[in-house]
Amino acid sequence: MKKSIISIFFIILLSTLLFPKNLTLHDYNDPSAHHILDADIQDDLLVVSGMIGGIEFYDISNSQVLNHLDNLTLSGGGGGGGQGGGTKPHCIKLFDDYAYVTTNRGLGIINISNPNNPQYLGIVSGTNNYILENLDVLNDILVVAAHEDGILIYDVSNPSNPSYITTIDTENSWTATLNDNILYVADEQILEMYSISNGFSYLNSIELSNAIKDIAINSNVLYVAIGSDGVVAYNIEQESNITLIDAYNTSAMANKLATFDYNKVAVSDWDDVEILETNFDDAIDLVGYKNTTRRTMAIATKDNYIYSAEWAAVQVFEYGEISGPDIDLNTYELNYPYVPNSDSYTMSLEITNNGNSILNIIDAYTTNNEFSYSELNDLYPGETQVVDIVYSANSNNSSGSYRILTNDNDEPEIICETNGNINGANIGDVAPNFELDIIANGVGSFQLSDYIGKIIVLAFFAPN
Question: Which CATH superfamily is domain 20-321 in?
């Protein structure tokens, strides 16, 4: 019996040591750019594009450090129809001495031969009437997703002056990826494959469970991000016989992918970064995790370093075995519903030790006495504890934070905001009825009162 218990303990301990679900935080930068949507790496250059505030350039020759080089706003520029100010970058791809960027005014070109002083060359002629999204470039071929206008294909043998080749028709394409001799096209939830060498002729297709957000390929494994349905992996070693490896439902919404090592993919999953590993047979496993809670929109990798491009920040994580403790919260913000004065409301916060040694709680407290909390104890590796935080209302617009001090080396202090009875809409308030015209993905109008009792998520985006 003792031998069995020891064996079980050893297996659990070995599993914890070999497969830590954590990432070490090395650096953080709060750039001028925000509404960040994409990131790409070429050699020691990291480029991050934000719809507002421009494009950020970083030297990552020291992979742990974000050495900021320059910020470029797309105002002016020559080329085949250079535009004035107000050009908003979306997605970006680096190719030798150039960066191609989709914007609200078309496909832009940036000379990055000197990343300390990048030069915006303007908009590619004929692209200003499209709504453009993700793009990819391989050898001398550039592909750009243009929603219902299809996949635009260019020859970039003259990289400062791309020449149009053809268009592949789609219903609504968000992304396309080039790999070897194959072009992979995401058309809503249909993944289509085309032969590059045979004039972009159609090969075959796969239907997935949700709309495709991104595609990445590594070691004959095709990874597909499908939003709220997570990530799907296929074995593409044989073009004529593509087989499903596994599907993994990430915790939020899988948006962008970046591969590294020979069998891993980093996922920007809205409120966290997740590292998935495939065994090339029949499984995808979660082997790394960090809850950023800052809207991780895009992801880029260099060796075992993960660059998280968030709505208004950039962070550097390192994936690898960690001997120490590692703290993670399930949320970094508690927003309470309206609470009448003298009443109280309880919300819960989950604290997890994703490291490999005991997480010692040095202190834990709230900064506003209207919020009380239950005791938080030291956590063993893999252990999660729930802390109840009680809001006792005495006034309007109560805000503060719950702060935890630990022996976590990279995050010795971690903060969860607490907000009660804020000025404005509170969770649980009655929503006013409204009616809006449906301008895409349907016809007629949307009226909130038609959906009483259902969960409604409203997201507002504008192309300009």
Answer: YVTN repeat-like/Quinoprotein amine dehydrogenase (2.130.10.10)
